Amino acid sequence: MENRNNITEFILLGLSQKKEMEILCFLLFLLCYTAILIGNLLVTISITCSQLMKQPMYFFLSYLSLSDLCYTSTVTPKLITDLLAAKKTISYNGCMTQLFTMHFFGGIEVFLLTGMAYDRYVAICKPLRYTLIMTRQKCVAVITACCAGGFLHSFGQFLLAIFLPYCGPNEIDHYFCDVYPLLKLACTDTTRIGLLVVANSGLMGLVTFVVLLISYAVTLYTVRSYSVENRRKALSTCSSHITVVVLFFAPLFFIYIRPATTLPEDKVFALFYTIIAPMLNPLIYMLRNLEMKNAIKKFWCHIAVREEMN
Questions:
Q1: Residue 2 reports pLDDT greater than 50
Q2: Residue 231 phi, psi dihedral angles, 5° rounding
Q3: Which pLDDT belongs to residue 41?
Q4: CB neighbours of 140 closer than 8 A, spacing ≥ 6?
């Protein structure tokens, strides 16, 4: 513990050391974060203020958008401000807090995607029992379980990082605090801890992804016997969800399912699950879902009518 206190702050090297590139990235990520805020808030509010909230699929979707918003907000605002800063620093406590919150909301999203896949499985494979199985109590229990799973995952990562001794250097070759870059700075043998990190992040993601694959394999097999119209509706819903899953999981696998090392490409792949996926998720669900489009239209029409009345 004494060695650890030698480091009171970390220096984030960020995405680039070139000022021109940093200004370009600042403008780009500011636009991306604005789109993330607008898109995810629009989905969350539109569902919450409509009858869609009573349907399990949209109930989960509203929480997915909220999770996306919280998840990217643990990293992106700091990234944007650092792009204009002369010295990119983060305190020791701030670094550990960022690591915990990022993995907490990231863990929630991983488990929530699994819950959404289960909802689609029940809706397509057991349509007559859907309302009996996916009750509001069951949906709330799924959300609670996702939060508990996210907490256990992030708390494990937090414990692995906070008990490491950091005695210099203090430069993190990344734009946020994560376990692998911190392992590189620890002044002790981190081989065993690296394996625990892989088990906590990599294997958790892999097991979840396999469960998702099995779920959708069974679902797609079931829709073969449906009519053309019903098959189209089922595939439309599933394709949106599968796209979101691939966008989120593919870069995670590259980073976490490997020995505890850091690569220059990690920062680029991290952009996919910290910024790009949260930005595209609302578009994916809105563009391919008629009910979602109608809910948004009704919400804005209601706002317009109230403005006129006032």
A1: no
A2: -65, -40
A3: 92
A4: none
- Note the residue count of the chain: 310
Q: Do residues 105 and 149 touch, judged by C-beta distance below 8 A? A: no
**Dihedral over alpha carbons 177, 181, 183, 188 (to 10 degrees):** -110
Reported pTM: 0.89
Per residue in 189-243, pLDDT (tens digit) is 888 888 888 888 878 888 888 888 898 888 888 887 777 777 777 777 788 888 8
Show the tokens assigned to 238.
Answer: 């599933």
